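F.,

This is the one I mentioned.
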């Protein structure tokens, strides 16, 4: 009677399970399986954004248990075992009846549930030992299949086209909020699904950051270099109705496009005026950010360490005199260069100290070198890349300079 918008191929799903099992055996060898709870991870591991949780044993089939929506789950997921539950007390019996009993020790996607939900889950399974499994799923999702890469490439193509259309529809005198409305109109007309999950627990963002001038350095609680005043303190994203893009001012647009669940990330800097009128300090900072982007993108090769790529960016920024303002300044400064990306904005790996596991073909990552100019703006660039056997290729277009708008 109903036709799903998409049904994940069974072979694709089973390959994900096999990869997760291999990583589970390596990174959490005491666990007999993994309990998946968070929505992005549930979608990845089942093919449906279920209201519930799923159990993947090392041996046996995955069991998806939903509080509500079993009919929808059966439409969208190729899993054979989809059951309904009311209480966590029922999980052990349901999994056993499905032929995939819970093991004495199990890993869990702990960041996918609230503190209260986690407490209830543990209370109702007192005979089980639960260990962290978030890093296992993060590593599983980090390397994309060809099925996923096709979606990532399309997402990146659409954001690149959307930004090109934006340049022809904005002008000085518009507020950040009105520019955000234009970008939403463009993106939705191109098939953006409307959601923008960050992957960071408790973090919310809508569309992205639209920053006119000094708004790019506005104090921010978001774990990113680009500040944003936002629509309101209750919703600190998009842009402010009260911040107007003035002639001779920089505009920073940092947004993402969600194509069928897969997100691209791109930052473009605009200038209200002609190229010859761009201030020298803005031009120098942007040129430095582009140099960092070029050098670090060239370093994105299989076997390279994300931490080493980050170190390279710091060295270039320091040599250019931007050590104190690279990736923000003061309390806004963040200590990373980029991040993995896919079903959420922030995925494994992070280009920061401590991330030494080598890059692999099939990873998709975003590098976002940005430089703060206190009292003026923040400039920089961001592109999304696919790691291939021979290196990285940008999926969101070339490393572009400032786009001038009259």
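My design for it:
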């Amino acid at each position: 009677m109903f036709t799903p918008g998409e049904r994940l191929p069974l072979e694709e799903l089973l390959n994900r399970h096999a990869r997760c099992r291999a990583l589970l055996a390596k990174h959490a060898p005491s666990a007999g399986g993994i309990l998946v709870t968070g929505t992005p991870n549930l979608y990845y591991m089942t093919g449906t954004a279920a209201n519930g949780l799923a159990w993947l044993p090392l041996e046996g089939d995955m069991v998806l248990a939903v509080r509500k929506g079993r009919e929808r789950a059966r439409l969208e997921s190729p899993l054979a075992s989809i059951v309904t539950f009311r209480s966590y007390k029922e999980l052990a019996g349901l999994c056993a009846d499905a032929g995939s009993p819970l093991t004495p020790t199990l890993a869990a996607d702990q960041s996918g549930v609230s503190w209260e939900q986690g407490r209830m889950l543990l209370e109702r399974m007192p005979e089980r030992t639960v260990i962290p499994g978030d890093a296992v799923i993060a590593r599983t999702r980090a390397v994309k299949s060809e099925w996923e890469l096709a979606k990532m490439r399309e997402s990146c193509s659409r954001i690149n086209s959307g930004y090109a259309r934006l340049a022809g529809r904005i002008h000085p005198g518009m507020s950040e909020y009105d520019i955000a409305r234009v970008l939403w109109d463009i993106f939705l007309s191109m098939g953006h699904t409307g959601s923008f999950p960050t992957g960071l627990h408790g973090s919310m963002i809508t569309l992205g950051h639209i920053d006119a001038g000094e708004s790019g350095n506005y104090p921010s609680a978001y774990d990113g270099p680009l500040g944003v005043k936002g629509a309101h303190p209750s919703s600190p994203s998009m842009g402010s109705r009260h911040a107007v893009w003035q002639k001779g001012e920089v505009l920073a647009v940092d947004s993402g496009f969600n194509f069928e669940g897969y997100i691209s990330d791109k930052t473009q800097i605009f200038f209200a005026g002609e190229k010859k009128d761009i201030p020298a300090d803005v031009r120098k900072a942007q040129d430095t950010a582009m140099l960092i982007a070029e050098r670090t993108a060239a370093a994105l090769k299989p076997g390279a360490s994300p931490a080493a790529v980050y170190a390279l960016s710091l060295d270039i920024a320091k040599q250019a005199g931007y050590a104190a303002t690279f990736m923000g300044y003061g309390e806004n400064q963040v200590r990373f260069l980029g991040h993995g990306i896919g079903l959420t904005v922030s995925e494994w790996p992070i280009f920061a100290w401590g991330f030494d596991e080598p890059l692999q073909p099939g990873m998709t990552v975003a590098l976002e070198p940005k430089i703060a100019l206190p009292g003026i703006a923040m400039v920089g660039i961001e592109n999304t890349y696919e790691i291939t056997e021979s290196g990285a290729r940008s999926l969101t277009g070339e490393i572009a300079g400032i786009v001038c708008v009259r």
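The longest strand covers residues 262-272.

Talk soon.
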